[in-house]
Amino acid sequence: MEYYHISKKQAILKIIIAICILGVGFGTFVVSYLAFDEIEKEEMSVVQGIRTSATIQQADRKEETTIQEKIEQINHAVVGISKLRNTESTIFRTESTSELGLGSGILVSEKGYILTNAHVAGEKYSNCYVTLDLGNQYKADVIWSDNNLDLAILKISGGLFPYAQIGNSEEIKIASEVYAIGNPIGYEFQKTVTKGIVSAKDRTIKFTENNQEIYMSNLIQTDATINPGNSGGPLINANGEVVGINTIKITSAEGIGFAVPINLVKPILAKLEQTNQFEEASLGIFAFDKNVLPYLEEELNWQAGIYVENVIAGSAAEKAGIFKKDVITHIDGKEMQKMCHLREYIYTKNPGDTITIKLLRRNTEKEISVTLEKKQ
Fold it and tell me: Is 5 considered catalytic here?
């Protein structure tokens, strides 16, 4: 039997070699594991990215489908309006569209209240004819109309009617998507939908009607196509809510249309919904806010409020001591910066109600109580 003698140095060397071999093996394992884990993470990231992209695309398609469905529902509430009864199968006849008084409207209550333009519906207490979604025709009563705002409210009777939801025109943003719906040219093209954006807010336009200069202020400007027959139709936001009533188009320029903000008539609609009647309270002034300044020949300057251009003789304002060139800053403690806000607030009141007006007269602050009267 032979014995091999291993020196202490040789033993230590072998141990070191063994440790190195184990270390290299372990290091290789760690590197391989980390590399595999990184590859797996990248693959998972790609998969998650694909899933996220698919989810976003599905959400976009769902949102698109939703607005399409909402507009489809709103279409049932869009109506055609004419001052003459339509007894023919076609609207392409000898009379012009303006002679027929063709336009659009939107049902805003199941009780049969319809919003449209004053130039479409006509004066208060007059009548016009309304054609609904299925072709049914109704004789409508004009229960409220204001030529300065180019707004009117009609009433039809005979059942419960489909109606559109009303939104908040104060919340719309510039560049947000909107849709205009109406009956351009005639009933053959009824419920035409055009898409655009809110180009601007609080626009003021000036035009002449019956030899009188008229200012329409606080309008919504849009590039959604608005043709003559679209007048009185709704301007819809992306939530499927009515935020304005299409009113006028500048024919000398492309892509410029306007709508009256819906908030202006909310108080009137609320009263009609609750009591089925609306008696309009009147302050008795012609006034405008700072948006009209660029149109004025005379140089006026005031920091805030509403400028009184004229006081109607015998009106509530005249009796209370309000004068031309006064600047109204507050009503019942509420700040007044826009004419639409003043109108909205007065619409919430009834004839006989007393309001407190704070105004500036030649830089002197005054406070006046006014008892509102019924608008004739």
Answer: no
SS (H, E, C) the chain: CCCCCCCHHHHHHHHHHHHHHHHHHHHHHHHHHHHHHHHHHHHHHHHHHHHHHHHHHHHHHHHHHHHHHHHHHHHCCEEEEECCCCCCCCCCCCCCHHHHCCEEEEECCCCCEEEECHHHHCCCCCEEEEECCCCCEEEEEEEEEECCCCEEEEECCCCCCCCCCECCHHHCCCCCEEEEEECCCCHHHCCEEEEEEEEEEEEEEEEEECCEEEEEEEEEEECCCCCHHHCCCEEEECCCCEEEEEEEECCCCCCCEEEEEHHHHHHHHHHHHHHCCCCCEECCEEEECHHHHHHCCCCCCCCCCEEEEEECCCCHHHHHCCCCCCEEEEECCEECCCHHHHHHHHHCCCCCCEEEEEEEECCEEEEEEEECEECC
- Choosing from 104, 146, 150, 289, which is the catalytic residue? 150
Candidate list 119, 145, 199, 341, residue with the active-site label: 119
pLDDT in tens, the chain (376 residues): 444 455 555 656 566 665 656 555 555 554 455 555 554 555 455 445 544 454 545 555 555 568 889 999 999 999 999 887 654 433 333 444 444 557 899 999 999 999 999 999 999 999 999 999 888 899 999 999 998 899 999 999 988 999 999 999 999 999 999 999 987 544 555 678 999 999 999 998 877 777 777 788 899 999 998 877 778 999 999 999 999 999 876 655 677 899 999 999 999 999 999 999 999 999 999 998 888 877 776 677 777 899 999 999 999 999 999 999 999 999 999 999 999 999 999 999 999 999 999 999 988 999 999 999 999 8
Instruction: State the architecture of 75-155 in CATH terms.
Output: Beta Barrel (2.40)
Class of domain 279-374: mainly beta
Domains of the chain, by residue range, sit at 75-155, 171-268, 279-374
The residue annotated as part of the active site, out of 217, 231, 315, 341, is 231
- Let me know if 119 is a catalytic residue: yes
Domains 75-155 and 171-268 share a fold: yes
pTM of this structure: 0.78
82: annotated active-site residue: no
- Domain 171-268, CATH among 3.30.70.660, 2.40.10.10, 3.40.1170.60, 1.10.390.10: 2.40.10.10
